[in-house]
Amino acid sequence: MGEITFEYYNGPVEHMDRLADGQHTCSFCGQLGRCFRLDQRRHGCFECLRQGRFLFDHDTEIGLLTSDGLRHFYNHHQRVPKNFNKAAFRTLLRTPEYVTWQQGIWLTHCDDFMIYLGEWKAKDFHQHSENGDGRSLFLDMTDKVQAFLWDRATPVGAKGPADWYAAYYAFKCRHCGKLRGNWDCP
Ligand SMILES: [Zn+2]
Ligand SMILES: [Zn+2]
User: Fold this and answer.
1) Which residues surround ligand 2, an ion (CB under 5 A)?
2) Could you tell me the residue ranges of all domains in the chain?
3) Which of 5, 14, 56, 175 has a CB 3.0–4.6 Å from the CB of 110, allowing a cystine?
4) DSSP states of the chain as a string?
Protein backbone atom coordinates (compact mmCIF):
# COMPACT_ATOMS: atom_id res chain seq x y z
CA MET A 1 0.00 0.00 0.00
CA GLY A 2 1.29 3.43 -0.90
CA GLU A 3 1.28 6.59 1.14
CA ILE A 4 -2.01 7.90 2.43
CA THR A 5 -2.36 11.12 0.54
CA PHE A 6 -5.45 12.93 -0.66
CA GLU A 7 -5.44 16.32 -2.33
CA TYR A 8 -8.15 17.68 -0.04
CA TYR A 9 -7.48 15.71 3.14
CA ASN A 10 -4.39 16.40 5.20
CA GLY A 11 -5.81 15.56 8.62
CA PRO A 12 -5.07 12.63 10.90
CA VAL A 13 -6.08 9.19 9.63
CA GLU A 14 -8.06 8.70 12.86
CA HIS A 15 -10.33 11.60 11.87
CA MET A 16 -11.50 9.77 8.76
CA ASP A 17 -15.13 8.82 9.03
CA ARG A 18 -16.23 5.20 8.52
CA LEU A 19 -12.67 3.93 8.89
CA ALA A 20 -12.85 0.25 9.89
CA ASP A 21 -10.76 -1.06 12.78
CA GLY A 22 -7.91 -3.34 11.81
CA GLN A 23 -7.30 -4.71 8.36
CA HIS A 24 -9.86 -5.82 5.83
CA THR A 25 -9.93 -7.21 2.33
CA CYS A 26 -10.95 -4.46 -0.07
CA SER A 27 -14.12 -5.39 -1.95
CA PHE A 28 -12.80 -3.67 -5.08
CA CYS A 29 -9.12 -4.68 -5.45
CA GLY A 30 -8.88 -7.64 -3.09
CA GLN A 31 -5.89 -6.22 -1.16
CA LEU A 32 -5.65 -6.54 2.60
CA GLY A 33 -5.20 -3.26 4.47
CA ARG A 34 -6.85 -0.26 6.14
CA CYS A 35 -10.34 0.15 4.69
CA PHE A 36 -13.50 2.19 5.01
CA ARG A 37 -16.62 0.27 5.93
CA LEU A 38 -19.07 1.10 3.16
CA ASP A 39 -22.01 -1.07 4.23
CA GLN A 40 -22.66 -4.42 5.90
CA ARG A 41 -20.68 -6.38 3.37
CA ARG A 42 -18.33 -4.04 1.54
CA HIS A 43 -15.02 -2.45 2.45
CA GLY A 44 -13.00 -0.07 0.30
CA CYS A 45 -9.30 0.80 0.60
CA PHE A 46 -7.60 4.21 0.32
CA GLU A 47 -6.19 3.49 -3.12
CA CYS A 48 -9.56 2.44 -4.54
CA LEU A 49 -11.08 5.66 -3.17
CA ARG A 50 -8.32 7.64 -4.88
CA GLN A 51 -9.08 5.74 -8.09
CA GLY A 52 -12.79 6.52 -7.77
CA ARG A 53 -13.91 2.89 -7.48
CA PHE A 54 -16.20 4.15 -4.74
CA LEU A 55 -17.05 7.73 -3.74
CA PHE A 56 -18.03 9.74 -0.69
CA ASP A 57 -20.70 12.46 -0.78
CA HIS A 58 -19.77 15.75 0.88
CA ASP A 59 -21.72 18.71 2.11
CA THR A 60 -19.87 21.83 1.04
CA GLU A 61 -20.28 25.58 1.30
CA ILE A 62 -21.53 25.72 -2.28
CA GLY A 63 -23.81 22.68 -2.34
CA LEU A 64 -24.30 19.03 -1.61
CA LEU A 65 -21.81 17.08 -3.69
CA THR A 66 -22.81 13.58 -4.78
CA SER A 67 -21.95 11.42 -7.78
CA ASP A 68 -24.90 13.18 -9.51
CA GLY A 69 -23.09 16.50 -9.17
CA LEU A 70 -23.43 19.57 -6.99
CA ARG A 71 -26.91 20.45 -5.79
CA HIS A 72 -28.15 23.54 -3.99
CA PHE A 73 -29.93 21.89 -1.08
CA TYR A 74 -29.44 23.54 2.30
CA ASN A 75 -29.86 27.19 3.26
CA HIS A 76 -26.16 27.50 4.04
CA HIS A 77 -25.28 26.76 0.43
CA GLN A 78 -23.85 29.73 -1.40
CA ARG A 79 -23.85 30.32 -5.10
CA VAL A 80 -21.16 28.43 -7.01
CA PRO A 81 -18.51 30.95 -8.09
CA LYS A 82 -18.40 31.37 -11.86
CA ASN A 83 -14.80 30.25 -12.22
CA PHE A 84 -14.95 27.45 -9.70
CA ASN A 85 -12.59 24.57 -10.53
CA LYS A 86 -15.01 21.94 -11.87
CA ALA A 87 -12.37 19.19 -11.76
CA ALA A 88 -12.43 19.63 -8.00
CA PHE A 89 -15.89 18.01 -7.81
CA ARG A 90 -14.48 14.72 -9.02
CA THR A 91 -11.48 14.90 -6.71
CA LEU A 92 -13.52 15.76 -3.61
CA LEU A 93 -15.77 12.73 -4.21
CA ARG A 94 -12.58 10.67 -4.01
CA THR A 95 -11.74 12.14 -0.60
CA PRO A 96 -12.47 10.66 2.84
CA GLU A 97 -15.11 12.26 5.00
CA TYR A 98 -13.93 13.62 8.34
CA VAL A 99 -15.62 12.73 11.62
CA THR A 100 -18.10 15.35 12.85
CA TRP A 101 -20.70 15.65 15.57
CA GLN A 102 -23.51 16.89 13.38
CA GLN A 103 -22.40 18.14 10.04
CA GLY A 104 -19.20 18.92 8.27
CA ILE A 105 -19.32 21.67 5.68
CA TRP A 106 -16.37 21.55 3.31
CA LEU A 107 -15.08 25.08 2.91
CA THR A 108 -13.95 26.77 -0.30
CA HIS A 109 -11.41 29.43 -1.26
CA CYS A 110 -9.85 30.69 -4.51
CA ASP A 111 -12.48 28.87 -6.62
CA ASP A 112 -11.56 25.50 -5.16
CA PHE A 113 -12.30 23.29 -2.16
CA MET A 114 -9.94 23.76 0.76
CA ILE A 115 -7.71 21.11 2.32
CA TYR A 116 -9.03 19.61 5.56
CA LEU A 117 -6.32 19.87 8.24
CA GLY A 118 -8.01 18.35 11.27
CA GLU A 119 -9.72 19.42 14.49
CA TRP A 120 -8.20 22.40 16.22
CA LYS A 121 -8.26 23.41 19.86
CA ALA A 122 -7.29 26.86 21.16
CA LYS A 123 -3.61 25.87 21.43
CA ASP A 124 -3.54 25.08 17.70
CA PHE A 125 -4.53 28.66 16.91
CA HIS A 126 -1.72 29.98 19.11
CA GLN A 127 0.74 27.64 17.39
CA HIS A 128 -0.34 28.55 13.86
CA SER A 129 -0.56 32.30 14.37
CA GLU A 130 2.46 34.30 13.30
CA ASN A 131 2.57 36.39 16.47
CA GLY A 132 1.25 33.85 18.99
CA ASP A 133 -2.12 35.60 19.13
CA GLY A 134 -4.47 32.67 18.71
CA ARG A 135 -7.58 34.78 19.22
CA SER A 136 -6.93 37.02 16.24
CA LEU A 137 -6.18 34.00 14.04
CA PHE A 138 -9.41 32.39 15.23
CA LEU A 139 -11.39 35.54 14.39
CA ASP A 140 -9.67 35.78 11.02
CA MET A 141 -10.50 32.15 10.17
CA THR A 142 -14.05 32.00 11.44
CA ASP A 143 -17.24 33.40 9.91
CA LYS A 144 -18.97 36.09 11.99
CA VAL A 145 -21.89 33.91 13.10
CA GLN A 146 -19.51 31.43 14.71
CA ALA A 147 -16.93 33.87 16.02
CA PHE A 148 -18.35 34.05 19.58
CA LEU A 149 -16.92 30.65 20.52
CA TRP A 150 -13.46 31.90 21.48
CA ASP A 151 -14.58 34.50 23.99
CA ARG A 152 -17.44 32.42 25.32
CA ALA A 153 -15.06 29.53 26.02
CA THR A 154 -12.51 31.78 27.72
CA PRO A 155 -12.80 31.63 31.53
CA VAL A 156 -12.99 35.00 33.29
CA GLY A 157 -9.48 36.39 33.78
CA ALA A 158 -7.90 33.85 31.40
CA LYS A 159 -6.04 34.73 28.22
CA GLY A 160 -7.94 32.23 26.13
CA PRO A 161 -9.88 28.98 26.21
CA ALA A 162 -8.13 25.96 27.67
CA ASP A 163 -10.59 23.73 25.87
CA TRP A 164 -14.04 24.01 24.41
CA TYR A 165 -17.03 21.86 23.98
CA ALA A 166 -16.99 22.12 20.22
CA ALA A 167 -15.26 20.46 17.33
CA TYR A 168 -13.47 23.04 15.19
CA TYR A 169 -12.61 21.85 11.68
CA ALA A 170 -9.64 23.65 10.14
CA PHE A 171 -8.99 24.05 6.42
CA LYS A 172 -6.24 25.57 4.30
CA CYS A 173 -6.47 27.01 0.80
CA ARG A 174 -4.44 25.08 -1.77
CA HIS A 175 -3.68 28.25 -3.68
CA CYS A 176 -3.11 31.18 -1.34
CA GLY A 177 -2.58 29.39 1.98
CA LYS A 178 -5.51 31.14 3.68
CA LEU A 179 -6.79 29.31 6.78
CA ARG A 180 -10.50 29.02 7.49
CA GLY A 181 -12.61 26.86 9.74
CA ASN A 182 -16.03 26.12 11.17
CA TRP A 183 -17.28 24.23 14.18
CA ASP A 184 -20.18 22.24 15.50
CA CYS A 185 -21.07 20.79 18.87
CA PRO A 186 -23.12 17.87 20.16
ZN1 LIG B 1 -8.92 -1.49 -2.92
ZN1 LIG C 1 -7.21 31.03 -1.40
Assistant:
1) 109-110, 173, 175-176, 178
2) 56-184
3) 175
4) -----BTTB-S-GGGBTTBPSS-EE-TTT--EE-EEE-SSS-EEEHHHHHTTSS---EEETTEEEETTEEE--STTPPPPPTT--THHHHHHHTSPPBP-SS---B-EETTEEPEEEEEE-HHHHHHHSTTS-HHHHHHHHB-GGGTTHHHHTSPTT-SS-S--SSEEEEEE-TTT--EEEEEE--
